[in-house]
Amino acid sequence: MVASNSFRSYVWDPWLITAQILCLVSTFYIFLGLWMTIMNFILGHPRTLDEFFVYQEVIFSSGKGRMIMVAFLINSLTCAAGLWVVVRRAKQCLDFSATVYFIHFLFCCAYAGFPQSLSWWIVNMICLSVMAITGEYLCMKTELAAIPVTIVTSSNSNSNAHNNN
Q: Where are the alpha helices (DSSP H) in the chain?
């Protein structure tokens, strides 16, 4: 928390944080489903929930495994845009990205057990990094955008004052 007399004051709002996390997790799975569906349609693979949660599916040696990796990578870029829309603060992008991937890790553990594949860990760490860094970049571009300021000259304000009288 920052003092209320500073430039920006923040109030810790657990309801807002929870809503943002739910929104980002929803974005993560909705768009991952979209990218997986598109990839499966193009390559002719059957759709299955295992592609999301089973760590044995994420392998470098098979075409389907590489397709899953590409879908996860594209999804991390989509979720970075979600960070930009939902969070809008560069300082919080890493926190929210890590939370989304931690929740995904918990879902994977509940569905198929603890991930024991090195490729699963590599893909998820790369995707977490891409999501956080790209989200920070997008948010920083917005935060650092020039704020337009119009300057009213004294001659204009004097003439407006005479017109009002």
A: 14-43, 50-53, 63-86, 93-112, 118-143, 154-164
Q: Which of 89, 68, 60, 84 is nearest to 2 (CA)?
A: 89
Residue 153: band (very low, low, confident or very high) from pLDDT cuts 50, 70, 90: confident
Residue 119 CA to residue 68 CA, distance in Å, equals 11
pTM of the full structure = 0.81
Confidence of residue 1 (pLDDT cuts 50, 70, 90): very low
| Integer Cα distance of 141 and 36 in angstroms | 30
Residue pair 68/57 in contact (Cβ under 8 Å)? The answer is: yes
Token pair in block for residue 94:
């890493």
* pLDDT > 50? residue 33: yes
Q: C-alpha distances in angstroms, 43 versus 58, 75, 84, 90?
A: 16, 18, 31, 37
- Nearest residue to 35 (alpha-carbon basis) of 127, 132, 136, 135: 127
Q: Is 45 helix (H, G, I), strand (E, B) or coil?
A: coil
3-state secondary structure of 70: helix
